[in-house]
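Page 47, continued from p. 46.
Same chain as before, 267 aa.
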Amino acid sequence: MNESVEKAECAWQPLTLRGVSAFAGAPLRRLLLVQFVVALVAAASVVWFLHRAWFPIIGEAIRQLPTQGELRSGRLDWQGPTPSRLAEGRFLAIVVDLDHAGEARSPAHVQVEFGRADCKVYSLFGYARAAYPQGRTVAFNRGELGPWWGAWAPAILAIAAGLVVGSLMAIWACLATVYFLPAWLVGFFTNRELSLGGSWRLAGAALMPGALVMCAAMVLYGWGALDIVRLAVAAALHLVMGWVYVVASPLRLPRQAVATATENPFV
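Result:
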């Protein structure tokens, strides 16, 4: 059995430097299969977190809505007191503050605040503002939103899983296209057996360890073992891990054979 076949058979776990380097000699379908499995793990961690941390708060907030209310022509028709904290947890809080006066701020990691003409989402990194849609009416009461949420919550989780898998596969392909050249240069200057196509596959596999670390961080965050600052640190770390594997994995490949002269060409 030749060396390329051996390397292809060993390309099944992108966790170690040698395991990542093995994908340089593996077929593309092997890399795509491994990436798809990791993307499924990432989607499962995201869906688990949403189902555990956010969806119960959203359901409780809907149950606290008044019997009448709607978003009409870009304005919130609110029949209850303001400010009003609808639901609150460690990870998410949902409040109504028509004037955004800041009197209903929560220590939750993310706060969704409905105002008179817009909605603001606060987090550790600041806030984002979104205006209500013009020219349409959206229910904002428990009588209409309750049944809608009960029917669509499972579908929303499934859509979120599909978006995570599709987005990660596309992002990893783009990053491999950016990272393959540094990997090839490392192999070229260290005289390793690494082609351009093998560099792209190696770069794609080098992103998997960081992705798995981010999945573990998401689960620990959902359990409360990590706060949002440590989650941000883990997100930065998983990017750095990709760079480390891209640079270090080519060094685990075998060196190119050096041709030696068997006879004196000047004789």
